[in-house]
Amino acid sequence: MVICESDSTMLFRVYLPQATSVELVGSFTNWRAAPVRLVRESTGWWFVRLNLERGDHEFSYLVDGCTWLPDYAAGGIRRNGYGGWVSQIVVEPPVPTPALCAA
Prior knowledge:
By secondary structure, the chain is mainly β. It has one domain (2-91): Immunoglobulin-like (Sandwich), CATH 2.60.40. 0% of the residues lie in helices and 48% in strands.
């Protein structure tokens, strides 16, 4: 699952109690060129927080270095060019706060 914690901070979480390593790969990591390692909690959940630029992004979890796992709880999924699935998220521009008028 992906939780938007602020305008650009995203919390990625996945439950994989049997995994020995989980990496986040995607359009924002140049896929396998710069994967981001997730941290394992004792409960079997893995997580990482990232600041992402606004726009459309695709990603997947790479489990134990060989299994690509999309996040079905993300903003969407689509077929990639290899016959598998990738997750999609959109980071929206920050919502401007209205200015207060001085009387």
